[in-house]
């Protein structure tokens, strides 16, 4: 039985981490698959994210300290040796470097796959140098999760071969549901014919939630905003809502475990980010039949069905105009069909498994 070990920086709710969990869920049962998190102990990781419970025997925490850690390289080397890894799959630049170093000490040849989930870090010279060194150490097979990421890597590392496998989600989990039942489940009290615009992302400046709040000022009073998430800008956003006298129209739910119900409660989903990679939230919303509006950054345009709208910027005027132009209170079956066709996690996982064991051909 072949053993596959994914290496991530940390295991907490996020797009990259959710993608890796999907790969565990849809992996062929003939493979042993584990996730090795550089940060956090196994106990801490399990305590902080309930979604990991079904995979509790497949989670490994290295408890990496702050800064560069030679001991973490040794721990990762031991994990690869003890679990008799055949494939090690790193995600993002930190795990790439540590994995490239760790496999130097393994007597058995381990195949290294690396996925780039965005290309922002390659804008800095330091990160380009680190990436170059890591690629030279282990010569991993590199996979981009979006066409725009592939182009970015090719522009920097001219001759390095790059594969593209787009991220997928579980459409059996994210399904079409009854809007009013979902709102009752979330305990949201709204006028019956209110139009609910949703956003699910970390509260950070880069995610652009302030633009969505400003856009709400330009919309009729029947429009409401529903936010899922937490982060460093939460207090500032709440203050902005009070300043604009929108407290009765903006609802902060905090961290939500039941994301399918969150999406089902919406009429529209909006992602006004300043930067994105290949956002899973848009895929999840569309799988629930919810049309989306999103700023044209990163790989966002690759995630949208014909029923959704790509906007050229995230100003309040642009967002509010797009929101007004969208049909409201209707389910988008075409959006769900788009996800079933292009972004099913099962197809994504099979593409990776083919790459693992095909000698680099997919």
UniProtKB/TrEMBL annotation:
Keywords: Transferase
UniProt GO MF annotations: glycosyltransferase activity
An annotated GO BP: carbohydrate derivative metabolic process
Glycosyl transferase family domain boundaries: 189-326
All copies of domain Glycosyltransferase subfamily 4-like N-terminal, residue ranges: 14-172
Protein name: Glycosyl transferase
